[in-house]
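Quick start: what a row looks like.
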Amino acid sequence: MLKLLIVDDEVDIREFAGNFFRKRQIDVFTASGGNEALRLIDQENPNLVLLDVRMEEMNGIDVLKTLRNRNNPVKVIMVTGVENTETIREANSLGVAGYIHKPLVLEELEKVVLKELQ
Protein backbone atom coordinates (compact mmCIF):
# COMPACT_ATOMS: atom_id res chain seq x y z
CA MET A 1 0.00 0.00 0.00
CA LEU A 2 1.20 3.52 -0.80
CA LYS A 3 2.17 5.67 2.18
CA LEU A 4 1.59 9.42 2.51
CA LEU A 5 2.80 11.65 5.34
CA ILE A 6 0.95 14.93 5.85
CA VAL A 7 2.88 17.50 7.89
CA ASP A 8 0.99 20.62 8.94
CA ASP A 9 0.60 22.48 12.21
CA GLU A 10 -3.12 23.01 11.48
CA VAL A 11 -5.11 20.01 12.74
CA ASP A 12 -8.01 20.75 10.36
CA ILE A 13 -5.76 20.45 7.32
CA ARG A 14 -4.19 17.21 8.56
CA GLU A 15 -7.59 15.64 9.21
CA PHE A 16 -9.21 16.96 6.02
CA ALA A 17 -6.40 15.79 3.70
CA GLY A 18 -5.82 12.59 5.67
CA ASN A 19 -9.43 11.47 5.43
CA PHE A 20 -9.54 12.40 1.75
CA PHE A 21 -6.58 10.13 0.89
CA ARG A 22 -7.56 7.30 3.23
CA LYS A 23 -10.75 6.99 1.15
CA ARG A 24 -8.47 6.46 -1.86
CA GLN A 25 -6.81 3.43 -0.23
CA ILE A 26 -3.62 5.30 0.72
CA ASP A 27 -1.99 4.66 4.09
CA VAL A 28 -1.86 8.12 5.70
CA PHE A 29 0.28 9.33 8.60
CA THR A 30 0.17 12.84 10.01
CA ALA A 31 2.58 15.04 11.93
CA SER A 32 2.04 18.44 13.50
CA GLY A 33 5.67 19.56 13.30
CA GLY A 34 9.09 18.96 11.85
CA ASN A 35 10.62 16.75 14.53
CA GLU A 36 7.60 14.44 14.55
CA ALA A 37 7.72 14.37 10.74
CA LEU A 38 11.39 13.36 10.67
CA ARG A 39 10.72 10.57 13.17
CA LEU A 40 7.76 9.27 11.13
CA ILE A 41 9.73 9.42 7.88
CA ASP A 42 12.46 7.27 9.44
CA GLN A 43 9.91 4.90 10.97
CA GLU A 44 7.32 4.56 8.17
CA ASN A 45 9.33 5.30 5.00
CA PRO A 46 6.48 7.09 3.15
CA ASN A 47 6.33 7.29 -0.64
CA LEU A 48 5.42 10.98 -0.47
CA VAL A 49 5.40 13.81 2.07
CA LEU A 50 3.04 16.80 1.97
CA LEU A 51 5.09 19.35 3.93
CA ASP A 52 3.81 22.69 5.17
CA VAL A 53 6.33 25.50 4.66
CA ARG A 54 5.37 27.52 7.73
CA MET A 55 5.33 25.73 11.06
CA GLU A 56 6.34 26.97 14.49
CA GLU A 57 8.75 24.34 15.78
CA MET A 58 10.72 23.74 12.56
CA ASN A 59 9.77 25.12 9.16
CA GLY A 60 9.31 22.95 6.09
CA ILE A 61 12.55 24.07 4.46
CA ASP A 62 14.52 22.98 7.55
CA VAL A 63 12.79 19.59 7.48
CA LEU A 64 13.61 19.25 3.78
CA LYS A 65 17.27 20.24 4.39
CA THR A 66 17.53 17.65 7.18
CA LEU A 67 16.10 14.95 4.90
CA ARG A 68 18.52 15.76 2.10
CA ASN A 69 21.48 15.95 4.51
CA ARG A 70 20.53 12.41 5.57
CA ASN A 71 20.48 11.43 1.87
CA ASN A 72 16.78 10.63 2.13
CA PRO A 73 15.33 10.89 -1.41
CA VAL A 74 11.64 10.80 -0.36
CA LYS A 75 9.41 12.83 -2.67
CA VAL A 76 8.22 16.03 -1.02
CA ILE A 77 5.44 18.39 -2.07
CA MET A 78 5.53 21.74 -0.28
CA VAL A 79 2.24 23.18 0.96
CA THR A 80 2.17 26.94 1.33
CA GLY A 81 -0.18 29.81 1.87
CA VAL A 82 2.44 32.40 0.98
CA GLU A 83 4.15 32.95 -2.36
CA ASN A 84 7.82 33.53 -1.53
CA THR A 85 10.34 33.40 -4.37
CA GLU A 86 13.32 32.73 -2.10
CA THR A 87 11.56 29.81 -0.39
CA ILE A 88 10.56 28.34 -3.75
CA ARG A 89 14.11 28.68 -5.07
CA GLU A 90 15.56 27.02 -1.97
CA ALA A 91 13.01 24.18 -2.06
CA ASN A 92 13.74 23.60 -5.75
CA SER A 93 17.47 23.38 -5.01
CA LEU A 94 16.64 20.66 -2.45
CA GLY A 95 14.73 18.58 -4.98
CA VAL A 96 11.12 19.29 -4.07
CA ALA A 97 8.60 17.48 -6.31
CA GLY A 98 6.07 20.32 -6.41
CA TYR A 99 3.89 22.84 -4.62
CA ILE A 100 0.30 23.04 -3.49
CA HIS A 101 -1.17 26.34 -2.37
CA LYS A 102 -3.51 26.96 0.53
CA PRO A 103 -6.41 27.02 0.76
CA LEU A 104 -6.35 23.43 -0.45
CA VAL A 105 -8.46 22.61 -3.49
CA LEU A 106 -9.32 18.90 -3.46
CA GLU A 107 -9.09 18.42 -7.22
CA GLU A 108 -5.63 20.02 -7.38
CA LEU A 109 -4.46 18.17 -4.28
CA GLU A 110 -5.61 14.82 -5.63
CA LYS A 111 -4.09 15.42 -9.08
CA VAL A 112 -0.66 16.45 -7.74
CA VAL A 113 -0.44 13.74 -5.05
CA LEU A 114 -1.62 10.86 -7.24
CA LYS A 115 0.77 11.93 -10.01
CA GLU A 116 3.72 11.76 -7.61
CA LEU A 117 2.60 8.45 -6.09
CA GLN A 118 2.46 6.68 -9.49
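That is the whole record. Residues 28 and 36 are 14 Å apart (CA to CA). The chain has a mean pLDDT of 95.
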